[in-house]
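protien #1 (seq + structre)
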Amino acid sequence: MSSSNKLKFKTLEWTENHLRILDQTRLPEETIYLDYDTVDEVATAIRDLKVRGAPAIGIVAAFGAVLGMRKQNFQSWKEYEKRLNHVISILTDTRPTAVNLFWALERMRMVAEENKSKNLEKVSQLLLNEAISIHQEDKLMCERIGEFGASLLKDGGTVLTHCNAGALATGGIGTALGIIYTASWQGKKISVFADETRPVLQGARLTAWELQQQGIDVTLICDNTAAFVMKNKKIDCVIVGADRVASNGDVANKIGTYNLAVLAHFHKIPFYVAAPSSSFDPAISDGEKIKIEERSADEVTNWFGKRTAPSGTKVYSPAFDVTPAELVTAYITEKGVERR
């Protein structure tokens, strides 16, 4: 039985010739699935965080490219290529930091290019096949990450995590949380402290919800409680995901990750980064070269519809930060555990 089949929800799926995603902006109060039929709808879903998490964004973008090429009347490869480039630009303009988005779309572009001499309807079918493959590969990568990472967790251990690097962020069981699920399925008793993850509460709304769905012991903490918890609650390790890893090992991940890495280093707690190979970007030499997305001030000053700062307050709200490689104990990928 595939580990993904043990999950009690689906983050995304291609079904009945359209894309279906779980609307993460409605969690934890409502579990609502949305169907998408156009590339513009998919781009908006990515931009508005209805789907998020680097691997999931890449998969959804691949299916978005498929949708963008449907219901078109192409007379030549030149017309097809022009439309595909336009579709890909719509999707790449959504979020700049997660490398999986660009990785997946480049795969889609290459499949089309390599088959341009074929019937264009056949090319579109090959694009769909490639998107399905990207999804299936991510499921398998998550399972392997889970297996390698679970070996690092002891029975009765306690993990601190940040943001959401679970099934909601991938096409499978997740990266950081996939490790926890796998350890649990192996019979280990694992407890989790989850940062709320300001400003849009991916830890509170998503990670806590997801872990509860799977019966994992989870305790939610405010982001600024992490140091106190490390000092007093016997945290065995920190496990986080990654949106992009530079060639030197610097890690771009949800804002606040760098804080945890510094705190873990001070408290002599292992700091693990769990990510598939698709999140590693050999074209980026170091973290300083990673483009960091900035989010709307409203996410800080109008907290879920309620004003929490005076009108006109200036806001700086980067969505991600960069953790230097020297603060990472090990990277857990589908290929194994690579220690620094």
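ok now protien #2
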Amino acid sequence: MQTHDRLFIGGEWVAPSSTETIDVISPATEDVVARVPAAKAADIDRAVAAARAAFDRGPWPRLTIAERVDWIRKLSQGLQARMNDVALAVTTEMGCPITMSTMAQALPPGMVLDKYAEIASTHPFEQDRAGLFGRVIVRQEPVGVCGLIVPWNFPLAIIAFKLGAALAAGCTTVVKPAPETPLDAYILGEVCEQIGFPKGVINIVVAGREDSELLVRHPDVDKISFTGNSVVGRRIASICGEQLKRCTLELGGKSAAIVLEDADPAMVVPGLVPNGILNTGQACAAQTRLLIPRSRYREYVDAIGDFLRAVPTGDPMDPTMQLGPLVAERQRERVLGYIEKGRAEGARLVVGGGRPSGLGKGWYVEPTLFADVANDMTIAREEIFGPVLVAIPYDSQEDAVRISNESDYGLSGSVWTKDIDRGIEIARQVRTGTYNVNGFIIDFGAPFGGYKASGIGREFGPEGIACFSEYKSIAIF
């Protein structure tokens, strides 16, 4: 049982304004494993004030690019030294299997911070251009105080995705972790304290939904960067729209993987299926709609079903497990509700659909595959956020592209083929923000984000820094 009784504000661990706390519950055991203070309005005001002072009067936005890059690299090194602690924290709080926590939860924060440091070190924050009547200086300046609101599925990694860009741009921040997963954020605060990170630049407050909205509405916050579901994203966008406040929204997905007739099942199934059930399906970019040519439909459905039956599912602390529990009881009930809806709408359950045998406790759902799915079924339209895949037959390449694009979302996708040029041709036709040919990766040097209901703005690459910037033109006569 871990107990934290302070909030990280202004570079110090400070007492919260109330005695209200948040319990962290293990998804594997259903036991309370940690308790942290719940930030209230006064705490959020204090965190924003610290970030505001650090931006308006502190050194951070006035440092040279080289100086900011050095601090970002020190932060990366500090987090890399705590990778084992991060992996254990994330497994404890949200049930990610420990082997995956090491690779996909604890490793990326340092990687993405290092990448932002690399990009920022050569980024043209100020350029000279030839204007109509003479010289024009175009400056990329920090937007100001930024609220970073992160979800529970890749908690510290997504903090780093936002933090690296904000710091590189010269912004100060208030980080708001999800109440389900605060433990990794405490490690971030400890690292900031250890390395002496400039005070007020990174502030961390854990809060529930109502108090989180105070951060969005706060008049001294210049920008909100949010990752989460589209319902909350629309709410944040409406508030930011009322205030003409900048926002970046990385929202949901229902990504389609197109398997072409020439693809080899021996390559496709082990390459594609793990990316559909990544993090027990709790990943916005998961490839969950599997588009398979009708001529090979049965072959692939059988192979995918066999693969899923063999996926080790259980105690996330066991390094041999590939799938753990869902993050919360409400999430398990949500996923089971979608499975029932799939059955009711006529999809054929091939494998899974219930609790894994031998696991009487914890919020587990078996890896699940539906076949004979039409693209207008609920399980093909809505983001389930669990280990549920749907196999949809198609008749032609044009048909596959049409099905891919018939979605409210547009975050990710992939195509599987022996013909790379044909794969690139398809990639150019699918309306998503990221796409893969014969694999799945999120590249920290390239922009990540979505079309349609999958969000607004981009993370990673120079485009990520641009989303935390304002552009200023200075004309010289």
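The mean pLDDT is 97.
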